[in-house]
Amino acid sequence: MTWGTELWDQFENLDKHTQWGIDFLERYAKFVKERLEIEQTYAKQLRNLVKKYCPKRSKDDEPRFSSCMSFYSILNELNDYAGQREVVAEEMGHNVYGELMRYSQDLKSERKHHLQEGRKAQQYLDQCWKHMDNSKKKFERECKEAEKSQISYDRLDNDINATKSEVEKAKSQLYLRTHSADESKNEYAAQLQNFNGEQWKHFNVAIPQIFKNLQDMDERRTVKLGETYRNFAEVERRVVPIISKCLEGMVTAAKAVDQRKDSGIVVESFKSGFEPPGDFPFEDYSQNLSRTGSDNTISTPKNEGVVKPDPKHSISKAAKNKLWLFGKKPKWSVKAPSLEDFSHLPPEQRRKRLQARIDELSKELQKEVDQRDALNKMKDVYEKNPQMGDPQSLQPKISETMCNMEKLRSEIHKNESWLSEVEGKVSTRGDRRPSADVNHHTPHGRESPEGSYTDDPSQEHRSPPHQPDPRQAHQPDPRQAHQPDEFDDEFDNDDPLPVLGHCKALYSFDGQNEGTLLMKEDDVLYIIEEDKGDGWTRARKQSGEEGYVPTSYVEIAMEKNSKGS
């Protein structure tokens, strides 16, 4: 069923219908636009909501409760959900709304072209009809004039009084009118035949083709609407799996809420470490009151039955302050200034803060150790391949790294001392060494050049030696270097240690402390033990004397077969 055959006479209605189709398409495009604007607004409001309730504090200040962490996880999932709504809006704008608007413009141009062709065909048919109608009217007029001439001639021919010239004149006039009528008849017949031919072409060829084009255009519009309806739904369907994952993440976060864990965190966060206060003794202030004679029978001797206040259990300000739950709060419960050793905190909180700081410093120390090892490897590569770089150019960076390591070790040692004080026991270096230097292990019973290892656990910790930085002065002053106090005598072994390499003294070293080795500038020594990360290298003189020397005081050259050992 085609419009060209069934609707050959409905040009105006088809004009209105095709216009309605384009208007409907644009109406649907407007609907999609408003829908994607709703999605954009919704996504923006969701993101603002997430931003409003997201924590604005640092990670250290954030609560670690499972309920809070789950809520933050839900906020993250909601933020991802808002992102999916933005994806929906973007794809609707590109794949549906944008496509509809482009197609609408194409439809308007195509419809205008087809309607113009239809109007031209109609105008041409109207023009043919006018020519035929004019020739018809002319033929009618000429026939009427010929009839009048025939009547006039017949009247004069029958009139006996008419002259011969009058009759000839009427006859000539009749002949002219009859000839004109015959010509008009022929012209009318030609115009009629032409009009009929053009009319047949119009209604059987031109108009059906034009209407068929309009029908194809309208059907394509309908198909396009169906495709955009499907795209409209597919946009939503494509984000459903991701939205489902967001919702599953929210459910998982809800299941992660653990009331017992949160209660434990409360205990961890606020436990002071103080013991609960004991019973307070009765303090009798009536001992010094004089008794009357009538009271002698019931009075008690001055020194009998009277409970004297025990100075150990007397109510003092400190004891009263410990009852802060029911009275005055101690000073640490108020906003106290932050001290380096956290002594303003209660014991348990102070222990946790110190342990956290030690762990953080240990991580920084490990980074410096890794950096030092990497620089040493690079230096070895430069020594083997001088064309790759100058080994001496790395020495300032190595020295700086060593200084940073010593500073970090000093900080770790200081915090470990405070931690031992909090725990109520003396902590030896060997107890906590893994947290300070992960990759360097020292044999039991031997004291390192830092003076922190010892066989006597009661011996107090000593600060690690401070090595001079050769970058700061060409010739360091050994008086400014803190030398190790003592070394265990471990050089009396029967079998000497193998030689790993040799070194050249850059500066003089007095070696006054036990375990150290005296050396002068430009002395050449044998290396029998590498630096373990504490800034000291074990060396041997040609005379056989052994001891430790500062690593930064010497220039080391290792044997090839000992690299990496």
Automatic annotation (TrEMBL):
Biased composition (Polar residues): 291-302
Domain SH3: 498-559
Parts forming coiled coils: 351-385
One Pfam family recorded for the sequence: FCH
GO CC annotation: cell cortex; cytoskeleton; plasma membrane
Gene3D superfamilies assigned: 6.10.140.470, Arfaptin homology (AH) domain/BAR domain (1.20.1270.60), SH3 Domains (2.30.30.40)
GO-annotated biological processes: endocytosis; signal transduction
Keywords for the protein's UniProt record, in alphabetical order: Cell membrane, Coiled coil, Cytoplasm, Cytoskeleton, Endocytosis, Lipid-binding, Membrane, SH3 domain
GO molecular function list: lipid binding
Keyword Coiled coil attached: yes
Superkingdom as given in the UniProt entry: Eukaryota
Extent of Basic and acidic residues compositional bias: 419-449, 458-485
Domain called F-BAR: residue spans: 1-262
Localization annotation: Cell membrane; Cytoplasm, Cell cortex; Cytoplasm, Cytoskeleton
Compositional bias ranges of the Acidic residues kind: 486-495
Domain REM-1: 344-421
Stretches for region Disordered: 291-313, 419-496
Homology family: Belongs to the FNBP1 family.
PANTHER family assigned to the protein according to its UniProt record, in alphabetical order: FCH AND DOUBLE SH3 DOMAINS PROTEIN, FORMIN-BINDING PROTEIN 1-LIKE
The name this protein goes by in its record: Formin binding protein 1-like
Gene: FNBP1L
